[in-house]
Write a structure and sequence with these properties.
Layout: H1 10-18, E1 26-30, E2 34-36, E3 40-48, E4 59-66, H2 69-77, E5 124-126, E6 140-147, E7 155-165, E8 173-182, H3 237-241, H4 300-309, E9 335-338, E10 346-348, E11 353-354, E12 360-361, E13 372-379, E14 406-408, E15 419-426, E16 484-485, E17 499-501, E18 504-519, E19 522-536, E20 540-551, E21 554-555, E22 558-559, E23 561-562, E24 567-568, E25 585-590, E26 597-601, E27 609-612, E28 623-626, E29 633-641, H5 643-646, H6 649-663, E30 668-670, E31 683-685, E32 687-688, H7 692-697, E33 718-738, E34 741-759, E35 777-789, H8 800-803, H9 816-819, H10 832-853
Parallel strand pairs: 2-8, 15-19, 18-20, 32-34, 33-35
Antiparallel strand pairs: 1-3, 3-6, 4-7, 5-6, 7-8, 9-10, 9-14, 11-12, 13-20, 15-16, 17-18, 18-19, 21-22, 23-24, 25-26, 25-30, 27-28, 29-35, 30-31, 33-34
Amino acid sequence: MFPYIFILLSFAIDQSHSQAGTNAPRLALYPPPFTTTSTRFGLLVVITNPNATTGAISLQCQANLFSFISNAQNAVNNPPCGNPSIIATTAAPPTQGPGVTVDPNVTTSAPVFGTTTAPTAGDWGVLEVQALQPDQQIYHQPVKVSRNVAATESVREYVVVSCCTLALTQNLQVATLVVADLSRNRTVNWDQAAARVNIDTGTAYQNPAFVNISPCPCDITQNACDMDCCCDNDCTASDTSSFRGCISGLPGGQAAPYPEYYCKSAHVPKEDWFPLMCVEREYNALIGFYYAASTTIRNSEALDNKVASESFYSYSRPSLSTSQTTIYKKGTSVKSITAGVAARRVGTVVLPQRILSGQCLTTAPVRYLEDQQSDCTFSLTRDLCSSDSIFSGYFYLQPSSNPLAFAVQGSPTDDNAAETNVNYFCTSDFSGYVKNSSATIPNVTTSTFFNFALPSNTACLDVCGNYICEEGVITDTAEPTRGTRCPFDNGSTLPPVPNINGNTCENAVLDVKYEFQWKGTRIVKVDATVILGNVPLSAEVTQRYEAKFNHQYVANGTVASDNYRNVTTTYDRSTGYDFGKPLQSGMEIINQTDNTFMYVNTNRSQQMAVWDTGADGLCFNAGRRQIEFGNDVFSSCFVKLSLQDLNNCSNIRKTLVNRLNNLMKADKIGRLGNNNYLNSAYWINVAREDISAECTGYLASLDDATNNSRLSYEARGLCVDIISGIHLDVMYAVTGKLNATPIYEVIGSRISYVKSEWQLTCPKGETNACNTPGFVDTFEVTSSVRFTLVPGNRPERLPRYQDSKYKDICSQDVCWEAFIYPISSYYEGVDKDQVLVQVLLIIVILIGFLVFLRPWWYII
């Protein structure tokens, strides 16, 4: 394989294709004329307006070498393709020897052996080019060009590559010019190597602190001329005349440009005060930063002594620390331990977790005080339906009451396991886990709305579609259920391993939830919930995992009891929210008799939530995802509607408002992390945007237009003022500190709605396609949450240059550091004390000049 480089100018090709139908067919070679230093290169031949031809189009391409640029340009204008008689015209007279022809106007290469000849047809060649096939969407082919003989000296050659079509009514031709700047192939001739090398003679190097040891850095080839290296003494006048230019700067052996703060600097634009405050001479310590010359090493003993006397830096991949930690700290991996076995086996508690690449890491450790929630999708194969896979209950925590179980280690130095309770539930509802089940996924070619229907009793709905009757109405069925306690679960029995029964994998793990209760640096208790099910093999199963850490508040040495519900509290009531913890919300319950506050219903179904979609992204299977404090969220799901659905806009509006308000049903949000549901002072109201005007102001159907006239056909399938999204704004503030920890408290909240127009988009030019029974269009339903920190005091406005993210912007575009650059912190040249003395001396001289000469006397 030749290392050819093909450059596809997609813009030019697309431009050529876009002109098809308006221009005559033509050939083009890309890239346009260019210069190369290689004996091999590649081009691309493209045909435009392929509709004018049919079938395969054969191509003939050739490379011609010319001595003069004028002849090459003529060949480009009159492509020599198919006419070998004009190859290598105007050749130079041959000369003897292994060199090249020396002529002011001609520079051409010679064969490796024999006399130097003029350019011949065999110097450059083109590999066979495949035919173009527009009928098969093949509009271009590569053209590979290579030099058949090696260059014996540095030469510049003019190569014209031309291509033409064959067997067409009107053959097409195209040509381009490639200038090849070649150097001699410098392979080592081992026959000329010395028979013996004197290893006792060392090479003396000059001290780089006083002598420029690299006056010509671009001279990298010994006894040979390097291209465009004007300081290379091996280059002859003939070589330098063929250079495109000299390499600039230090690499080309030229002096480095002066820094901008030097008085000799020629940079532009210059500051107004540049001649006054600039550096005239600088004593830089850089010349002392060279290694001292080392002694000659002639034997292995001297080499070993030299290596032993030097210090080296070695990089090694960080490894997991094996040191035993004595306490749990934030971020430390939670350890597991066998509950009752004398020979302790210590491990790490893990849960599968999705990483940045989107893949799942099945052995991600659970880290202390770091909540995590993830899901992973696997294809349930026969190999995964086994005792050592992630679908096995043995992969996760087990009850500590079983002496053979792996439970959580309360502290890294404990010999006893923390109390670990695992509840196993068996479910037959796979709607939230198995996404390819025909029972839960509707046909996407038909209309798909919500897994919900408005009640037939319209008296329970207001004009917007909200419930006004008692609670206990229709609930969402898309939310996965835990099922019932498994028959084998008695609190200490280990779960059965997955087994294959026909085409079903029995006892497969679908959902795992850990709730850790911690106190200080210890884990006090763990409550785990594991959901099992009998899942069909080859199904795409989405497992869900969750781990939460709840603080066990201790008062007076005993576990505090939550007087609100007579259960153990998991929050300290004196503190506010923690970032990442659930946002407390609920529905206010009013005594219908005296219209007084009774309590706040904080049931999970009554709290604020956002859409939690599955793999299909449909609202039909979307569940509820809990809102976490401080985390902004935007989620959405999709509905698929047909023309018949969009003709009943009233039903769509009411269903959307009902489902969106059901998603964020709560009218109260807790101020702190733990709130008394019996005390209204712990809760704030949720302001909700009034949309009653939109609910009563739009048309119920197309027949309700003015004068009962039917809207035009183009307006069919259009619904305006659709409430397609819901947004929650939560404002919080720092209302105090506890042990130097800020107390975050919610001080306000508001719900707003997103309005849009839904219109069925028919394929262009196919107006009757929308009437097809199977034609549906996709519409988005959104939900979002935004948290805003409200400062305690109104902040003062900052100047533009301080508020900008660009720190180099100066006040009013005046940078005083640049005016006094030699004595500023940015200057790293001469020592500051020397610069200060010089500046003070200049100031004294300037003052003396003004005092003694008094130039202002002469000012009229």
